[in-house]
């Protein structure tokens, strides 16, 4: 089978490997599609070498079908459409003991800490697998994992109908957060400098504005009778994005930090004091979030097809990463594994 392996910063290779047979409590999945996300880009840039070793198989956003079932593994059948929740918690640390296993202190994140989804056949513990509706296209299903991120973020923020929500950053996760928040009945404004991403969001009926051409704070205050936004999501990963997310908030507003910031940022803590703001971190997802994400994608509430900008063959993996890295004209890029000889 083929596998995409990390060989060092900005260098991915394709290797021929033997599929791993499923053991007790495992299944082997014939991968159909894998998505490339921001974490994969961090790996590609060499920023996660402390966790990702040489020749590691990366990737965690995926869809596929069961190809084989291990001994004493029940509830699954060959040919069944599935996706994977790629997080394995220890069950013993403080986070796990408190019911927060999704932020386990000893997390095994598949595709980072152990072999991931960018391979023709992926053998995983059966308890990490979720079934997919048979009528759900497998390319759309490859977006379930990032949709679960958005679902978790919305739940963490406690978004309710009527809330004024500002999403700073219009990449795939930002657009998904805006979509899920709107589905909850929130009034949503997306802030994004890239014209392609703004146009893509507008095409999904999400209002998107250019922070370089619009006074975002003034616009939000005008639309909320001077109060400000109830909730802001920082998804840009930029210092300017943090400033905007703080400045748009109303009294006792909530800032939800979604983006990974690789370095410390200056934050206007006086505004937090003055308006009694709240800062919430949001990381990963729980199994219920994955189940809800499947429902949203399958029902069409999340327009997965409109988020997929390019589908590339596995052989074009380096070009696919470059396209996503450059950002112009793409939202979500998928790798198609179905052409592999199985």
Describe the structure.
The protein has 342 residues and is α/β, with parallel strands linked by helices. 30% of the residues lie in helices and 26% in strands. The protein is built from twelve helices and 18 strands. The protein has helices at residues 38-44, 94-97, 138-141, 144-157, 172-183, 195-203, 216-223, 239-247, 269-275, 287-299, 304-307, 317-326; strands spanning 2-6, 12-16, 26-35, 56-57, 61-69, 81-84, 87-88, 108-109, 121-125, 129-131, 164-168, 187-191, 208-209, 229-234, 249-257, 278-281, 308-313, 332-336. Strands 3, 5, 6, 9, 10, 17 and 18 form a seven-stranded mixed sheet that branches. It has a six-stranded parallel sheet with strand order 13-12-11-14-15-16, sandwiched between helices. A three-stranded antiparallel sheet has the order 2-1-4, with no helix packed on it. The longest helix is centred in the middle third of the chain and has 14 residues, at 144-157. It is globular and about 60 Å long. The relative contact order is 0.16. The model has no long low-confidence stretch (mean pLDDT 96).
Q: How far is the N terminus from the C terminus? A: 8 Å
The string of secondary-structure elements, in order, is EEEHEEEEHEEEHHEHEHEHEHEHEHHEHE
Radius of gyration: 20 Å
Unreliable residue stretches: none
**How many DSSP-defined strands?**
18
**Helix share, percent:** 25-40%
Count of helical regions: 12
Fraction in beta strands: 25-35%
Q: Would you tell me the structural class of the helices and strands?
A: alpha/beta
- Shape call: globular
For the sheet with most strands, the description reads: 7 strands, mixed
Average pLDDT, all residues: 96
